[in-house]
């Protein structure tokens, strides 16, 4: 049992302890593979705040570039990855800057 002095010391030390932080679950990463000159899957649905990751499995370089030019992964050589963190609901259409016939869509929901 604590005496009064021990209790006061424990109380004072507790007052200076750092606050506990709630752990939050990591947001999902949705992978899109680039292979055979196509995005697989070509259409994905994610939540706002999730990450989309592209990985290039082709020998040719590719990009994932927003149709409105609002974002771009940059040049992705074989086995390179690029990421986009989605921020708000909407439809994000994209293509490869080198091969415009390669198209994809990200549906971002709240």
UniProtKB/TrEMBL annotation:
Swiss-Prot/TrEMBL cofactor(s): Cu cation
Organism domain of life: Bacteria
PANTHER family given in the database record: BLL1555 PROTEIN (PTHR36507)
One Gene Ontology CC term in the entry: periplasmic space
Main location: periplasm
Gene label: amcY
One Pfam family named in its UniProt record: Cupredoxin_1
Keywords: Copper, Electron transport, Metal-binding, Periplasm, Transport
Bound cofactor: record note: Binds 1 copper ion per subunit.
Domain (EfeO-type cupredoxin-like): residue spans on this chain: 21-108
GO function term, MF aspect, one: copper ion binding
Listed SUPFAM superfamilies: Cupredoxins (SSF49503)
Stated name of the protein: Amicyanin
Binding positions (Cu cation): 62, 96, 99, 102
Species this protein is from: Aliidongia dinghuensis
Subcellular location: Periplasm
Lineage: Bacteria, Pseudomonadati, Pseudomonadota, Alphaproteobacteria, Rhodospirillales
């Amino acid at each position: 049992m604590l005496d009064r002095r021990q209790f006061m010391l424990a109380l004072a030390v507790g007052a200076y302890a750092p606050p506990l932080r709630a752990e939050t679950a990591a947001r999902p990463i949705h992978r899109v593979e680039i292979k055979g000159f196509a995005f697989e899957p070509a259409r994905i649905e994610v939540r706002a705040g999730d990450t989309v990751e592209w990985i290039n499995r082709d020998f040719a370089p590719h990009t994932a570039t927003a149709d409105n030019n609002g974002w771009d992964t940059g040049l992705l050589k074989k086995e390179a990855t690029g990421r986009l963190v989605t921020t708000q609901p909407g439809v994000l259409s994209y293509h490869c800057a080198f091969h415009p016939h390669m198209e994809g869509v990200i549906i971002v929901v709240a």
